[in-house]
Amino acid sequence: MAEEYKQKLLDLLVATAKQNASDLHIGVGRRPTLRIDGTLVPLQKEPLVTPEIAEALISELMTPDQKETFAKDRQIDFAYNLEDKARFRVNVYSQRGYYAASLRLIPSRIRSIEELTLPSILHDFTNLSQGFVLLVGPAGHGKSTTLAALLDEVNHKRTDHIITIEDPIEYLFMQDRCLISQKEVGNDISSFRSGLRTVLRQDPDVIMIGEMRDPMSISTAMTAAETGHLVFSTLHTNSASQTVDRIIDSFPPEQQGQVISQLAATLVAIVSERLIPRLSGGRVPAVEIMIVNPAIRNLIRERKVYQIDLVIETSLQEGMITLNRSLVNLIKNKEISLETAEVYSLNPAELRILLERT
Q1: pLDDT in tens, 298-331
Q2: How far is CA 90 from CA 31, 58, 75, 79, 222, in A?
Q3: pLDDT for 35-64, tens place per residue?
Q4: 2-106: CATH, from 3.30.450.90, 1.10.510.10, 3.40.50.300, 3.30.70.890
Q5: Residue 136 clears pLDDT 90, i.e. is over it
Q6: Which of 162, 179, 247, 346 is the most buried (most CB within 10 A)?
Q7: Per-residue confidence (pLDDT) for residue 1, from 0 to 100
Q8: Cβ(206)–Cβ(133) below 8 Å
Q9: 8 Å CB contact between 77 and 89
Q10: How many C-beta neighbours within 10 Å does residue 199 have?
Q11: Quick one: average pLDDT of 199-207?
């Protein structure tokens, strides 16, 4: 019976890769479901998942140690390799007392900035010797993929030591000109906290923090950027201005003055990304890019974050772009529809006005 479930799991993972899905969901009471171009698609030929099937399939994904962790915490994150053909980021969790899992397919090849159809200004961030660069946006909208493209470009054109701290490791980097140390929580380090505490002792030039989860990780990132390192990280926020607010507000009031000074001094850029369904199929990125210039530094120091959007809108010549302008460009190029753009816009009324003016 175990062999039967092992084969069924293999079939589902192969189907995920073959259909170019981003995710596979396994949960009781529904058929295994793929996310293709942002839309959930149940596998109609598969039977409804029973509690027994869910537990058997998901158990095949986990090592004995991972099963032990899941039994204790009722959730676990890890990476799973499919016979060196595909790699998945896995979250196993409990829902209504039953096993459930979400598996994100990680492409085996790291794509370039051009292949991802991202703005060429992103190349500039890979030339920096120090500073703090943030990739933000909702889950599943390309942050990790963009981050991998940036790091891989550094890997191919510089001779630096890159250290990543991830939970779990997603993209696997093949060392080229750089020395790359990828650290995974649970395998290489006991926790994000312990990894961050020691990273500066390991002679890094470039540091990638998979996700800033708490004030400690944010503080470490800013300190590293302040002391001559190039730091990349991600945050689940919707825009550049919201990101600045979130960082400041994550600290208690008595620490916010110092955080504001550090952030104004170290922040180089924030890229906010959305993957929008294309008219021709697939998804295309829409981005907001904020590059920190003297005006934005002053707004951060004076806590006038609400004025940042205006600076971005009026600084096109510096490589900045608002999300709405990016969406308008995609509409004009017949990549996406107005209706779809309005769903992803943070200000649909402004989007329509901008579209009429251009």
Answers
A1: 999 999 999 999 999 999 999 999 999 999 999 9
A2: 18, 10, 10, 6, 29
A3: 999 999 999 999 999 999 999 999 999 999
A4: 3.30.450.90
A5: yes
A6: 247
A7: 64
A8: no
A9: yes
A10: 23
A11: 95
Mean residue pLDDT of the chain comes to 95
Cβ of 58: how many Cβ atoms within 10 Å? 24
114-117: list long-range contacts, CB under 8 Å, 24+ apart: 115/149, 116/142, 116/145, 116/146, 116/149, 116/285, 117/284, 117/285
Statement: residue 73 has pLDDT above 70: yes
Hey, where are the domains in the chain? 2-106, 122-321
Percent of the chain with pLDDT strictly greater than 90:
90
Residue 161 structure tokens? 């030591």
**CATH code of the region 122-321:** 3.40.50.300
